[in-house]
Amino acid sequence: MQVLFQIVRQQADAAPHLQTYALNVEPSRTILDCLNQIKWEQDGTLGFRKNCRNTICGSCSVRINGRSALACKENVGGEVTRLQEIAAHSLSEPAAEIPTITVAPMGNMPVIKDLIVDMTSFWDNLEAVDPFVSTSARQVPEREFLQSPPERERLNQVGNCILCGACYSECNARETDPSFVGPHALAKAYRTVADSRDHQTEQRLERYSQGTAGVWGCTRCYYCNSVCPMEVAPMEQISKIKQAILERQSEQQPAQVSRPVRHRKVLIDLVKQGGWIDERQFGIRVVGNSFRDWKGLASLGSLGIRMVQKGKFPTRFEPSEGARQVRSLIDAVRKAEV
């Protein structure tokens, strides 16, 4: 079949541009096969990464028609079908007679050349979560530190990560907050939290709970789950770390816990009281820690002034009509959890 490849070409610190190549290929040919054909037969200057060609190494991650994927896994026929389905459900112009596949470099990383990106931040953020099992306090020289099959099974899903960078490329939180370590790092972090051989669980959970650099920086957009080629589901692993943090702080009063955990506790308490959030209390109790955090209170000042100026500051609170039902639902969920 005939297909056009639009490839984003770019040199470092230069504006990107599209370059089009026409190919005649079988639908079963992978995107990586097509990139190889372009490089070998049409343009030897095209830059991209590759290695195993078998969905193992993760080297060939690129953006294919707007979403990050492994070039060695996706094929021409599948991409053409996907484009046709998108066109059939959109109000835009119908798909062209000759299908066009657009290939671009991954996001959230600077471009070195064409489809090759600088993954320094990706590796640095992975190292920042210390993704290595620590057994120094539990070593038994006379024997191995063994795990039961159920203990090992907890690690299988995250163990499938090949560090391709697809989730990192599509992460909205990383795009807006450079301090966020990324879904790949936190998925690997959960592997150490879940590992029965690791003895630093408490310290890890404390570190992963700090500000927006850790799990609370995740916006729960689920893009990382949708693009992961190995079904690691980074979003699910982040949620498991959050749950572990919440379980350890569940018995503490809101004023004693970290702001992200206090945010969740106060939100539930206010919704339980009134059916929805009393915004007058929310900022004071979460950001201001019920008048204990003066810096937090001060940070609310400019926002409060703008709200008053625009007439958006709530002067009173009316509970919702369904407050009683909301309260019973929350109590039922808590009872089920116990």
From TrEMBL:
Q: Which SUPFAM superfamilies match?
A: 2Fe-2S ferredoxin-like, alpha-helical ferredoxin
Top enzyme class, one word, equals oxidoreductase
- Ranges where the 2Fe-2S ferredoxin-type domain occurs: 5-94
Going by the entry's taxonomy, the superkingdom of the source organism is recorded as Bacteria
Q: Which residues form the signal peptide?
A: none
The UniProt record lists the EC number as 1.3.5.1
Q: Which cofactors, by name?
A: [3Fe-4S] cluster; [2Fe-2S] cluster; [4Fe-4S] cluster
* Any one GO BP annotation for this protein: respiratory electron transport chain
Going by the UniProt record, its keywords in alphabetical order are: 2Fe-2S, 3Fe-4S, 4Fe-4S, Iron, Iron-sulfur, Metal-binding, Oxidoreductase, Tricarboxylic acid cycle
GO molecular function annotation: 2 iron, 2 sulfur cluster binding; 3 iron, 4 sulfur cluster binding; 4 iron, 4 sulfur cluster binding; electron transfer activity; metal ion binding; succinate dehydrogenase (quinone) activity
- Pathway involvement? Carbohydrate metabolism; tricarboxylic acid cycle
Q: Name the family the entry cites.
A: Belongs to the succinate dehydrogenase/fumarate reductase iron-sulfur protein family.
Q: Which PANTHER family match?
A: SUCCINATE DEHYDROGENASE [UBIQUINONE] IRON-SULFUR SUBUNIT, MITOCHONDRIAL (PTHR11921:SF29), SUCCINATE DEHYDROGENASE IRON-SULFUR PROTEIN (PTHR11921)
Q: What is this protein identified as? A: succinate dehydrogenase
Which organism is this protein's natural source? Pegethrix bostrychoides GSE-TBD4-15B
